[in-house]
Amino acid sequence: MTANNQASHLIECDVCVIGAGSAGLSAASGAAQLGAKVVLIERGAMGGDCLNTGCVPSKSFIAAAHAAHAFKAAMAMGVGEGLAPKVDFQAVHDHVHAVIGAIAPNDSVERFEGMGITVLKESASFVSPTEVVAGNHRITARRFVVATGSRASLPPIPGLAACKPLTNETIFELTTRPDHLLILGGGPIGLEMAQAFRRLGSEVTVVDAGEILGKDEPEAAPLIRKVFADEGIALHENAQFADPKLVDGGVQATVKTASDTRTISASHLLVAAGRTPNLDGLGLDLAGVKTNKKGVEVDARLRSSNHRVYALGDVAGGPQFTHIAGYHAGIFVRNAMFGLPSKVDYAALPWVTYLDPEVAHVGLTEADARKQHGEVTTIIEHFAENDRAQTEKRTEGFIKLVLTPRGKVLGATMVGPHAGEMITLWGLVISGKVKLSAVASMIAPYPTLAEISKRAASAYYKPKLFGKLPKAWVGLVQKLLP
């Protein structure tokens, strides 16, 4: 029997959302609160990747690792000499899942049904450009949202799948600490998990086909390499990962670089080497929706080739961040609910790699800025010159500003403690077109790490403020003043 024949219950609505992750939940709630009749369809766990296998568990796990590492930092200040953290990995697992449980009610079926949204726990598939089937329901809608997210993918390496490697979807189910975690992939997930597992007591090896932090400013990677070396994390960049296989007690693989070939044995293998959009079974061809290997093809308003169908979040083929999913939902609401031709603008797109120190960026890198604008100016200030950083013995890191010659901020990178919190200021500067002079003249509380932003902004004006002309003017004023 076909899906068409099975479907018996017709639902007519204004908006049908497929996928209850960050993008889908935000789009559904926004539309419902504006009076639209909304159907929300989710075949898996409410909250999607972010709540269940992504941002929430990973940052909870990293928080536990920070707590363990705090013992070492305390000893450097004369506190707890000789003490070492005792890690109960089962308790760490329980902490991670307790945080998920605490946040889950915000994404629950009950909460969204309380908004008047019809929630269907089914798989959804288009059967025409204006109809979706989910279980025994046929849904017609004025607008559809595809927000099905993405999943971890395995590189086409012979033998890799047979090793049944961990991914972000399974790593947080571990209740016993790995003796040696081998990580394939040096992107944000791979690096974050490397440092966290190392701080919780695992031996860790990272293998990446390229160089780490390739999308960030080049000054960031050397600093993180040193941190990893100091913490005892083995890092192999520009390396080939080959011949993975299961062995007694774990896995084994060959790692080749330009200067070395070695066999690495580990108790566990984590693959963090890319993601694949969730398009399977959606019947997008029947809806007249074009796709490619990155996801649904969309225009600047996030509309697919069928303008009734929008794609939001990871499945839209753009930047894969939870905050982008929420941003996309806002674009959808403005277009579909208010009829405003709102378009995506990534000029102030922030991203953070939650290492210690954190690596945070917003806007353009220097290289991208030179491609788009030609001549640019850069300013770098180091946390070693920040008094608060000195008091906390956290002097590693820097801020880098990328500016036009006239002082317009194009991008900013911060590497340091709490950089992810402090980069928000520069996102506002870029998106709000705030003048650099406003940051330079603001009163920043002392002593704070955030003073580094004021210091960097002020540095742009130093050559002009203390040049020959200002000095001549001051000399004249001093002669004329009584």
TrEMBL record:
GO terms for molecular function: flavin adenine dinucleotide binding; NAD(P)H dehydrogenase (quinone) activity; oxidoreductase activity, acting on a sulfur group of donors, NAD(P) as acceptor. FAD binds at K59, T148, G149, S150, D314. Transmembrane segments: none annotated. Binds 1 FAD per subunit. Residues 14-328 form the FAD/NAD(P)-binding domain. NAD(+) binds at G185, G186, G187, P188, I189, G190, L191, E192, G274. It holds the Pfam family Pyr_redox_2. Keywords: Disulfide bond, FAD, Flavoprotein, NAD, NADP, Nucleotide-binding, Oxidoreductase, Redox-active center. This is FAD-dependent oxidoreductase.
